[in-house]
Amino acid sequence: MLNAILPRRGNGRAAVNDNPDGATLAFHQWVAQDYARQQAHYVRLRAWYDGAHDVPLTARQAQYLATDPEFDWSINYLRLPVELAVERLSVLGFDGPDGIGGVGGLLDEWWTSGRMDAIQNQVHRAAVRDGDTYVLVEWDNENGRPVFSHEPAYDGVDGMKVHYLSNLKREMTMASKVWSESRFDENGRMQTVRRLNLYTPSAIERYVNTGQGWRPLETPGEPWPVPWPMGIIPVVHFRWRDDGGNWGESELESLIPLQQAINKAALDEMETADKTGAQLLTLTGAMWPADAPDVAAGDVLSVSSPTASWGSVPPGDLSQLRERINDYIVRIAQVAHIPLQYFQVTGQIASAATQAADDSQLVAKVASEAVALGNAWEDVAYIALKMNQVYGDGRDLKRGENVATRWADFERVDRMQADERRAAIVATLVNAGVSLSGALSLDSLGYTEEERRLMLQGDAVDGITQ
Question: What are phi and psi of 197, to 5 degrees?
Fold first, then answer.
């Protein structure tokens, strides 16, 4: 993946067959090692999210907990913190100059045609889970529009990797994408090949590996590498818990130790229930025959011995073990700023007002993290507009012009109740002498341009006139 920084021959190609000197090899090894730990970390984070927790089981526990080799046993509470954040992160579109932002603008058209309502969920989920993920922006010459694709962080096999100038400066020097493709060879046989693209500010290098090492993937009649006149790498880095460094931090980082404790506590409860969860019969003064059939619940037992005496040990109390599990669940809720109602560790159901109040911490967290994510989406929009200027028939932003990501409400909203409240506010303002257009333009009411237009036409508001 480092061909782009190898010495160049006179024809501009990477010297993939030259023998690099010791300094070059040392530099390559340093770069590779710098990312190795991070790639392994992504793999483990994804495994924890999926419930593959590698919980050690005794032989007896494996008999009833490891019955399906396709699924590791765990009581996985790590999906919920990720999914709750993703559910609250929904980009509605972009505000910007006329014809570019807003409903019906160019960015809205690209967002809709690119099915970005679904792709954004992939991006947000990967960012929350891994801490880092990427969006690649390419140009579709046939349809004359940009194409947006989610590229997960490189895990040592496939994915996107970015290279920065230093650990403290966010200056991307190169991005690389590795993946596999299945194709038919000249004999009609299915062949799996490896692909590699390197993205620099001035060129895109494409490579292929059919089992004999990387070689340039050339297209007849086209230059290699492909010139890239944009001057900017078409890859945008999305970070969760962005602290200003090059890399984000997964939502799972502080929760995995608590998940380990939950798995252990749950095993303790199951072990105790397996051994003492039910009443145990005791027999003294005689021996139970070794060749006797297995005993089932409800069987009447007897032995032919005048000294035999039957007794029983009452079942053990599992409540304290259950409380331990619930305690760890509560701690996950506290650390992740998740309302405890989502875990329902008690039989009580909180009132609507209590639920709304408990929801505030989660809303605040998501709103805070959405700032960096929104900036990344704006970078995606900037690159797309710049591509449209270079390859299409559009223009880039002028000096002083900007686009801004427009998010849906982060809190849970009763839409009918919210609409009634906004309508009541508008009616009060109009009755006080404020024009309808003036009342609808208040940012705090959150009406979109399309909603304002319909209301001013009288299609959405009855009984109020300008």
Answer: -120, 135
DSSP per-residue codes, 149-214: EEEEBP-SSSEEEEEESSSS---EEEEEEEEEEEEE-TTS-EEEEEEEEEE-SSEEEEEEESSS--
- Chain centre to alpha carbon of residue 280: 48
Specify the amino acid at residue 351: S
DSSP H or E run through 407: strand 404-407
| CA dihedral sign, ordered 448, 450, 451, 456 | positive
CA-to-CA distance for 391 and 283, rounded, in angstroms? 88
d(CA 337, CA 182): 44
Strands across the sheet containing 132-140? 145-152, 132-140, 235-239
Q: What are phi and psi of 172, to 5 degrees?
A: -75, 125
- DSSP of 43-94, one letter per residue? HHHHHHHHT-------HHHHHHH---TTS------SHHHHHHHHHH--EEEE
What are the structure tokens assigned to 253, written together?
Answer: 């980082």
pTM for the structure as a whole: 0.79
For residue 25, what is the enclosing H or E element? helix 22-50
Confidence band for 359, pLDDT divided at 50, 70 and 90: confident
pLDDT beyond 80 at 352: no
The DSSP secondary structure of 271-292, one letter per residue, reads HHHHHHSS-EEEEESS---TTP
Strand partners, 238: 133
C-alpha–C-alpha distance, residues 382 and 233, integer Å: 12
3-state secondary structure of 137: strand
Contact 132, 105 (CB under 8 A): no
The mean pLDDT value of the chain amounts to 84
Task: Centre a 10 Å sphere on the Cβ of residue 74 and count the other Cβ atoms it contains.
Answer: 20
> Per the omega criterion (within 30 degrees of 0), is the bond before 225 cis?
yes
Residue appearing with tokens 């292929």: 208
Contact 379, 402 (CB under 8 A): no
- Tens of pLDDT, residues 130-188: 999 999 999 999 999 999 999 999 999 999 999 888 777 788 999 999 999 987 777 77
